[in-house]
Design brief:
The complex is a heterodimer of chains A (192) and B (261). Chain A is mainly alpha-helical. Chain A has 9 helices and no strands. Chain B has 261 residues and is mostly helical. Chain B folds into 2 domains: 41 residues, no CATH class; 160 residues, no CATH class. The chains are: A mainly alpha (192), B mainly alpha (261).
């Protein structure tokens, strides 16, 4: 039977540093997913994964079992992602969401359309637009939305990760959904 | 029940909130709210059209393979944590004062030819000088090694955001007093090259020791710049290497002495 996260943490704290491997192998994928959604870049997400586990190892004595190890790790991931995004140079001009190319891309990305290379390309373009829309959210809104929508955390858990009251976490999600709907409306309309 | 607000529809989509059964019942019976709920569902599904790049079965092991060498560095750093904690200011001050006396004797002894009284027992003095020099070199070597570790840590902090530097601060605080004494001794004995390096080192140590932790991104960037601009890490490393050489071979050049390459 696999040792629980808390048992592994205790071993690491006792000096068995190699036990940290279990935590890395168990949580790498979820950390990568969250980091990718928050940074929007594959390489950045990989950097965040490394930095997150490095910080977790360094700070493991500060981990208090009041929340789960996964929740604590999410918090570090969110902080590392925000740090990375903040020091990244701002992109120049962003393409308009209602340009003809996007409309074509949205039509081609329609799952009912016949499969062809163009469709894959179009899906990628729509994906880029989604990332652009996500990048327009504030750090807090993006983090709260990603954890609720993609990772399935409850609003209460999100509050713990972001150190927010539940009501504040909830309103961050509301604002994120509102902004995303507005930004992606042209795409959504064409998908109907 | 009145129509659902946009926020209530979001809660329904994520199946959160206290009034879930009532909200579901209302949407099932209200065409307007059902239409709005479907529009919300389509919009939120659109967000999922950006897939996560695939990661192989061995991803966790791959992450560990990349991480493990970096944790090795962490462990090396942690090796001296108990030592750093044990080296409290009074102990270090006492050690520093002794080392300064030794340094003064060492530098004075090397830079001048002392007249030896004709009747002095030469064999008695030689072992005493050698012993003092060994103690001094060990103290200075340890000081430079610990300084190098702190500088290395600061020079390689690339996290971008605030960083916990409490360990580096504790060590910098410990090193500061001894560094000041070594520098003053070097100045008194006219060893300008050593004094200059110790002065640059002291500036960084003072800033690190007196800054709040976690340190801001700007502080870290400034320290990195100070370390890089003066080639401080390199100089401290070279001085430390010279001290070690001298520990092994007393005829080796003194720290701070230029050697031809």
């Amino acid at each position: 039977m696999e040792a629980s996260d808390l048992a592994v943490v205790a071993r690491v704290r006792a000096g068995d540093h190699d036990a940290f491997r279990h935590l890395v192998e168990r949580h790498s994928r979820s950390v990568f997913r969250l980091a990718y959604r928050l940074t929007g870049q594959e390489q950045d997400a990989e950097d965040v994964v490394q930095e997150t586990f490095l910080r977790a190892f360094r700070e493991i004595r500060r981990f208090e079992a009041r929340s789960s190890f996964a929740t604590w790790l999410y918090r570090i991931t969110v902080n590392c992602s925000h740090d990375l995004v903040r020091r990244r140079p701002r992109a120049g001009s962003r393409p308009s969401l209602d340009d003809p190319e996007l409309r074509m891309a949205a039509r081609l990305a329609d799952p009912s359309a016949a499969a062809d290379p163009l469709r894959e390309l179009a899906s990628r373009r729509v994906g880029e637009r989604v990332r652009t829309a996500m990048s327009e959210l504030s750090d807090q809104e993006r983090s709260a939305f990603v954890m609720r929508h993609f990772e399935g955390l409850s609003i209460e858990e999100i509050g713990r990760v972001l150190d927010l009251k539940t009501s504040a976490a909830k309103h961050s999600i509301f604002r994120a959904v509102h902004k995303l709907r507005r930004a992606l409306e042209p795409v959504a309309e064409l998908s109907r | 029940m009145t129509h659902l607000s946009d926020d209530e529809l979001v809660l329904l989509f994520y199946r959160e909130g206290d009034g879930l059964p009532e909200a579901e019942a209302h949407v099932a019976s209200c065409a307007g709210c059902l239409g709005r709920f479907e529009a919300l569902t389509i919009a939120l599904r659109e967000v999922e059209s950006d897939p996560i790049p695939a990661r192989g079965e061995s991803y966790g092991a791959d992450v560990w393979a990349r991480l493990q060498p970096r944790l090795g560095v962490e462990r090396q750093r942690r090796w001296w944590e108990p030592l750093a904690a044990a080296m409290t200011w009074p102990r270090l001050a006492m050690g520093g004062a002794v080392a300064v006396l030794l340094l003064a004797a060492f530098v004075a002894g090397r830079s001048s030819v002392r007249p030896v009284p004709a009747d002095a027992p030469q064999q008695a003095e030689a072992p005493s000088d050698a012993a003092r020099e060994r103690v001094l070199l060990a103290a200075v070597g340890s000081h430079l090694d610990r300084s190098r570790v702190v500088l290395t840590e600061l020079a390689h902090r690339n996290g971008g955001g605030a960083a916990d530097i409490s360990l580096e601060q504790a060590t910098a605080g410990d090193l500061l007093a001894a560094n000041r004494l070594y520098r003053q001794t070097a100045i008194r004995n006219g060893d300008a090259a050593v004094a200059a390096v110790l002065e640059d080192l002291e500036r960084v140590l003072v800033e690190v020791a007196s800054s709040p932790s976690p340190a801001s991104h700007d502080d870290l960037a400034r320290w990195r710049e100070q370390i890089d601009a003066k080639g401080l890490l390199f100089k401290v490393t070279v001085m430390g290497a010279r001290v070690r050489e001298r520990q092994q071979d007393p005829a080796a050049p003194r720290p701070g002495t230029k050697t031809s390459t």
